[in-house]
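The freezer alarm interrupted the setup, so I double-checked each line after restarting. Inputs confirmed:
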Amino acid sequence: GESVGLHLPTLSVQEGDNSIINCAYSNSASDYFIWYKQESGKGPQFIIDIRSNMDKRQGQRVTVLLNKTVKHLSLQIAATQPGDSAVYFCAENRGETSGSRLTFGEGTQLTVNP
Amino acid sequence: DAGITQSPRHKVTETGTPVTLRCHQTENHRYMYWYRQDPGHGLRLIHYSYGVKDTDKGEVSDGYSVSRSKTEDFLLTLESATSSQTSVYFCAISASSNYGYTFGSGTRLTVV
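Predicted 3D structure, all chains:
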């Protein structure tokens, strides 16, 4: 069935490097995308979102890029820090009428090495 | 997590017993959701609510029921717990459709 997925289940980077986490989605009707960060033993935390009328959105040290042509979403983290180590999920809202219903990918484990 | 509380945080129960998990919010958000999280499956939607007494099924609703008698509380009931329902359960809230969710801290449920 349709799903949001991730290209890489794990990513290991050196502290200070930039990280790029990728996500593929399959539903062309999806109009809203979110990245979440989940630390061990905690619930997912909102990082950044983007709507389908945008290609790029920046936050503090994070940038989300949306390529609707190839249905690809990426999260860039600048100057990655040890505190960025976590599982990162992308999620898509398929625009269904009966409420916001996000579908989540399986997650990428980011490990930051000192 | 600010404005959303799940209880209990941990529970061990026996197969065949009913279990109720509670999600309480102080944000007055319209939408509430129950997800389960399992290794290899990510977050999967069990049930959700789009208003008081308005609920609908998600992708993994079998064996679960929900109730929302007031805005602030969304209850998830496992009618007869099975070992396959051992999981971490997350509640989430959203102010409006097409907006991001705020998640609770989760309930770790073990069915033995």
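Quick read of the result. Chain A touches chain B through 25 residues (CB under 8 Å).
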